[in-house]
Amino acid sequence: MKIVLAEKVSPATLAVFQQEAGWNIVTPDQIKNGLAAELADADALVVRSAVQVDAALLESAPKLRVIGRAGVGVDNIDAPAATHKGIVVMNTPGANAVAVAELTLGLMITMARSIPRANATMHAGVWDKKSLQGQELRGKTFGIVGLGRIGLEVAKRARAFGMELIGYDPFVAPVIARENGVTLVSIDDIFNSSDYISLHVGLTPQTEGLINAHSIAIMKKGVRIVNCARGELIVDEALVEALKSGQVAGAALDVFTKEPLKESPYHALDNVILSPHIAGSTDEAQEAIGIQLAQQVRDYLKLGVVQNAVNVPSLSREEYVEVAPYVDLAERLGAFLSHATPGNLENIQIAYSGRLAQGKTDLIRNAILAGVLSDSENVNHINAASIAAERGIRVQEDKKEFVSGGAGSVVKLTLHSADGDATASATVLHGNSPRLLSYDGIDIEAPLTGTLLSIRNQDVPGVIGRIGTILGEQKVNVANFALGRNVRSQRVPQGQALAVVQIDLPAAAKAQSVLEALRKVEAIVSVRLVELQKAQG
Description:
The protein is α/β, with parallel strands linked by helices. The protein folds into four domains: 2-95 and 284-303, NAD(P)-binding Rossmann-like Domain (Rossmann fold), CATH 3.40.50; 97-274, 3-Layer(aba) Sandwich (Rossmann fold), CATH 3.40.50.720; 313-439, CATH 3.30.1330.90; 449-537, 2-Layer Sandwich (Alpha-Beta Plaits). The chain has helices at 11-18, 35-38, 55-58, 79-84, 97-113, 115-123, 149-159, 174-179, 187-193, 213-217, 236-245, 283-303, 317-337, 362-373, 384-390, 463-473, 511-519; strands at 2-5, 24-26, 44-47, 66-69, 88-90, 141-145, 164-168, 183-184, 196-199, 223-227, 248-253, 272-274, 345-354, 394-400, 409-417, 420-429, 433-439, 442-447, 450-458, 477-485, 496-504, 524-532. The strands form four sheets. It has a seven-stranded parallel beta sheet with strand order 8-7-6-9-10-11-12, sandwiched between helices. Helix 13 runs parallel beside helix 14 (362-373). The chain is globular, with a radius of gyration of 25 Å. The model has no long low-confidence stretch (mean pLDDT 91). It comes from Terriglobus saanensis (strain ATCC BAA-1853 / DSM 23119 / SP1PR4). InterPro entries: ACT-like_dom_sf, ACT_dom, ASB_dom_sf, D-2-hydroxyacid_DH, D-isomer_2_OHA_DH_cat_dom, D-isomer_DH_CS, D-isomer_DH_NAD-bd, NAD(P)-bd_dom_sf. Keywords: Amino-acid biosynthesis, NAD, Oxidoreductase, Serine biosynthesis.
């Protein structure tokens, strides 16, 4: 085996490969004639963020089987080109979870004890003990938003401080939360009850602007907020005003909407702790990332075990051509139904009918799971099943080779929670057009592409016109408007209807303002915004 390390790695990372007898390990200082020439007979390529692995470079690597990226992002790797050549692309999500968790707790302690001000006054020669009386974390209610790897690591450490832990994450089974000492609650309960709130979710239409004027208004006065996740989770103007008024006693921010942070109103506030996106930047985390990647690459080359891949597994050309449209459909269907259950997700049921049921469906199943779980953390078609298992979510598959109606193959997805279910079915028309066929037992045909509004409303006159008027006032163009009435559904109360509206949301428009305007309509029971991005395949 020949392993090319295109960028510098730690000695411990290098040692993982050097322990394998007969393996040829090429380090950056040994690359004399260019990377392309070195890859001519290489089995594996390891990079960090500097080397661009594009289609042209891959043409120089006819034997390459795996590309390993030491980190989470793979923007510097042409994953579709790698997939086309049958090359697995791996990354290392979660390796820095402990580092982020430790900084989160460190920031909480720092706020509780006013450590920056204590340090500053002492360096200024001022002994100001009286004004520095702080608070203990013990006994405080700690709201954790997002219970993925990092959120659970935070919970483990917060328990040691004697805090009362509550959490919000619709993609974690209650048993997983209980095992980690976390009581699952609604997001409003997080805001209402918490003395400290920490954010550990990805950026999605549902989480963007999660901390805003409305959510801050229902928080306990004197709450403290930590954000080591994504800057866009917070509406900065709303947090600044709350920090000035005292509604929020303090905030600790490691991430920002625009980085590096310049000319920010946060700079003038002494109850804000700012750090330059360093949560995952520890010696140990960077070492762990390198070692984890080396082990993943080694295990794939020796055993064929695929871990943390970001592209689809290899298929024959014939198999891939047939299944690819349904892989795309499956991820879109999962993303559409994500967040639709009234409680925490416990069970996922997938039913295949028609020709699709006769072939391999593992890839389609994983695409559905990736869509359902896409809001929670770094999930892809390869690791989706294992992440669902980690979160205590059961997955059941059923196959029926015959299908009624005009669709050749249909995928039906049902999400179960203790408080209720959500279900939808879909198919591919004309070979490349993903279409919704039903939603919660109501027949409704709509495109599963672009930006969608999923609306449940009272089946009364005037609702359609009101929706159109509001979208027009918001400068939002309607691309498709699909309606369904409750004829026989047991999932939707009698007298209610469904609408799925495909819209062109201008870049300047704020999704939150569109949703707020629609929710003010008395006849509208609920509304969700779903953005269906291009599938990962």
